[in-house]
Structure formats: C-alpha cells, structure tokens
Amino acid sequence: MSINRREWLARLAAGGAGLLVPRRALGAPAPRPQAAPAPAPAPATCPLALKDFQPRSMLHVAEHKVERARFPVIDVHAHFSWSKGEEMTFLATPAQILPVMDRKNVRTMVNLTGGSGAGLAQAIRRFDAAAPGRFITFTEPSWHRVREPGYAQWQADEIERAKKAGARGVKVLKTLGLFLRENGTAGPLVKIDDARFDPMWDACGRLGLPVAIHVSDPEAFFTPIDRFNERYDELGNHPDWSFHDRDFPSNAELLAARNRMFARHPNTRFIVLHVGNDAENLASVSENLDRFPQHVVEFGARIGELGRQPRTARRFIEKYQDRVLFGTDAVPPPDGDNYPQQVFKDELYEIYYRFLETEDEYFDYAPAVVPPQGRWRIYGLGLPEPILKKVYHDNAARLLGLTS
Ligand SMILES: [Zn+2]
C-alpha cells in the first residue's frame, strides 16, 4: 500500500490513524471506492511573471530600526546636481536636504557632481556657502575639451582654479572609460590611463584634492541580459546600463587601466567609489588596497553586495578600517525614485545604519518592493563602535581636512 505524506495527513484529519490499517484485515467489509482528493488550487496567475513575484519573508527574526547613526556621519557620495559643460541642473535645495541630515545625524554631505567653471561657482554658492560645514562640493573635469590642443595643461590649471573657487576634490564619473570617445560620442573610447590626464592627476595630488573615481560597474552589467544574469530586473529597468557587447572593454580591462594610472600617480589620493568598483570581489579589492596605498574605498549603492557576504565584508572592513568611507550615492527625489537603492530619504539612511550597526538578518537593502539591484536580501555587520566611528566620520574627515 503506497501513500504519500500529504494523503496520510489528510486521512488523519478526516478519520484517524485507523485508516492506515487495511480494514479488510480486521474483517470489515471492503470500503466503497472514494473520490480522489481535490488537486491543490492553482495560483491566481499561472505562470507568474517575474515582475509580479514579490515573496514576503516568513522568517521571525529580530528587527532593529536605527533612526540615527551612533556617531556623526560624513556622507562622501551624493548627487545634488548634474552638470553639462558649465550648465547646472539642481536636484534639491539645502532647505530640502538639511532636515533629513539633521534627523539622521549626517553632519556633512559631499556633492560630487559639482560641475566646473561658472557651474561650480553656482553649486558652491547654493550649498557650501548657504550652510557652512554641512556641504562640500567637488569639481569635474571638462571631458568634452579633451581633443583641444593644450587640453592636458589647461585641465590641470583648471583644477587649480576650481580649488581657489572652493572645490574640495575632483569627481570622475564612469564617463572616462565607458562613454568618452575620441570624437566626443564617436570613435574609440578614451582609456582611463590616457596620458592626457596625467597633469590633472598630478595637480590633484599637488593641491591635496582627493579624486573620487568611479570606474567600471557591477560585473553583471558586462554579461548578457538573460536568465543567468543576477541583475536581470535592474538591467530590464535600465537596459542602457549594460556594457555587454559592442566595443566596451571588460570589467577586468577597465580596472587594469585604472591600476596602471594609479601606479603612475602614487601621490594623488583616490576615493574609489562603490567598494573599489568591485564589490563582488573583495579579495581583489583587498589586493588593490595593499598594492596602492594612496587610495581608500567607499560603499555607496553597494550594501546590497556587502550585505549578502556579511562574514567576508566584516573581515574586509575590520582589516581596512582606516580606509573605508561612508557613502550612499544619494540622489534626491523625484530623480532618485528611479534608483530606490539611492533615493535620498530617511529610510535609505536607516537601512545603511541597520546594516552597519546591527546583526539583523535577511532584510531589504533598499526601500523598494522588489530588491532593485538583484533578488536577494542582506545581513547586518554589527561593527564595533571604534570601527563605526572611523567609517562614519573619522576616515573622511582626515581625507577632506575637516576639523569637526
Ligand atoms: Zn554616484
């Protein structure tokens, strides 16, 4: 007599264990044939589209809401403006940003995309000058001029002028390496280690301006957008973020070009954003930290990566506790709503704080119904206080020359 567990449990519920003993053996009359059990109800929609799959965790585990960071925070990675040449688009006013900072214990925010020339002056007036000590602005190179004769020296001099205007560092977007081409938008891509930028990197070192550099992107952006891609939802929402195919270099080639440039500029300080732009591979990030002592890393928009490898991530931060900076890559709404892992609001900071301060398990890394970067959840690191203080504040304060 074969019976599966579900049938057995159903029969128990219907009439007791006696049904398991063949009644004929007890001398009872043969039972009348019974109707087969009803099949399990089909899901409301079958098959279910991936976009509609929103499983809710049934885990009963501790949840700690961390409303304020345990120490004052310097957020070194935010975008309150975008620049096109010297033309600026501002995404928020200080009056919109400061209340969130105050509630979340963020002392200072660094607006990395502060533009150049007249645009930079405008950004500094709008933020740094309006609320001294609360905002810091970085300048950006003028990539569109790269083919002009004399660009290399002009760009180095321009960085010096930017410093005089109040810029506290330089931001390099992934424009360099992935978008900038010899003829603007056509021709071969300009390499990260192109010699035309050498005077600029040197100027940054000489002037004490740290360079926040974004090179490459998540590894999955370099592989096909197919069923094997762990960022399938994200690339479906932003297909233009894919660097698979066409003439793009591989992730490894981009990082190698960056490293060749680092090797030529040992006296320039770099903040390598997004965990050295290789958050999936902390062994490699560690190797680079050991090899190039002039750089530190920041983890904006990558707690999704760190938090799914919490033991490796904690060991990494413990080992490099003087070289890891707090950043969120925050973009104010409504623009930021397109990137839930970066949207500047209270919930974003609460998730970062929970990740760093607690040992909570399996929680969302972004305020969104579907995890926006990949369908997984994260685990808190529970960092000890001395490390938290360095990561939240002291490491950035030292690099940026802040006294408070
Ligand atoms: Zn960014």
Molecular structure report:
By secondary structure, this protein is an alpha/beta fold. Helix content is 34%, strand content 11%. It contains 14 helices and twelve strands. It has helices spanning 5-15, 94-104, 117-126, 151-165, 175-178, 198-207, 232-237, 251-264, 273-277, 282-291, 303-306, 310-319, 346-357, 385-400; strands at 73-78, 81-84, 87-90, 106-111, 135-137, 170-172, 181-183, 186-189, 211-213, 270-272, 295-298, 324-325. It has a five-stranded parallel β-sheet with strand order 6-9-10-11-12. It has a three-stranded parallel β-sheet with strand order 1-4-5. Strand 7 and strand 8 (186-189) form a beta hairpin. Helix 4 packs parallel to helix 6 (198-207). The longest helix has 16 residues, at 385-400. The protein is globular and about 90 Å long. Mean pLDDT is 91; it is low at 15-29. Bound molecules: zinc ion. The site of zinc ion has 3 residues, from loops.
Supply the key terms:
single chain; 404 residues; alpha/beta; 5-stranded parallel β-sheet; 12 strands; binds zinc ion
Q: Could you provide a short overview of the structure?
A:
This protein has 404 residues and is of the alpha/beta class. It has 14 helices and 12 strands. The strands form 4 sheets. The chain has a 5-stranded parallel sheet. It has a 3-stranded parallel sheet with strand order 1-4-5.
